[in-house]
Amino acid sequence: MNGVDVYGEPDNNVMLYAAGLGADTAGTVAIVTGVLALALVVVNRPWRFARNVVTIVHEAGHAMFAVLAGRRLQGIRLHSDTSGVTVSKGKATGPGMVLTALAGYPAPALLGLIFAWFVSAERLSVVLGIAAVLLLGVLVMVRNAYGVFSVVLAALVLGGIAVFAGPGVQAAFVYLIAWFLLFGAVRPLFELQVKRRRGAARDSDIDQLARLTALPAFLWLLVMGVLSGTCVVVGGMLLVDPAVGPELVFGAGS
Fold this sequence. Notes:
The chain is mostly helical. The chain is built from twelve helices and two strands. The chain has a two-stranded antiparallel sheet. Helix 6 packs antiparallel against helix 7 and helix 10 packs across helix 11 (about 215-245). The radius of gyration is 20 Å and the shape is globular.
């Protein structure tokens, strides 16, 4: 958190000053982008399109933990119905497979929390850099045409913002990404439970976890919900921190 230096001048605040935003403006941006991100998640029509971003991060989570667990990553497929699948080879049971199956649904919330932390730490360029690396990594492993299209489209949007947009727009975009990943991690869990109640999605991540661990699928759904919900609360606090009051940026004194 920023204070004032010995001369009574504000510290160099990359997020607020380089982006041309004062403390009050930054707070407004945090709130407006949060509301917009929530609308993208709860309104069906934009969600059907925006959910592709959540799917990309979901599958990237599977892929990353598969590699960390020592499994051989075979490829990622992204589908037009916003579903996806990540294929890896290795031991069919054990902790590595459990972590791989567990990683997908919480991945967007965890990434949103990481982005929120970087926003709070005034490192907007790091968020854009991480997003670019993630998209490149997924693009290398995508094995179908729609998947390539989805990742390239996301990369074009990201590149356009990074190259052509001014600092203020970039700041708002980073806020929007962080909020969207946080909120966007929650709705798929509700959608999954609705599908399971209808007798569908019986080979979902939580059903795989149930078979791997002998624990009920609903318990794994609860675990993922708690993880995602915690990320939303903590990440949201980090993002709205500048909106609480100018003293959080400039310090109590002047």
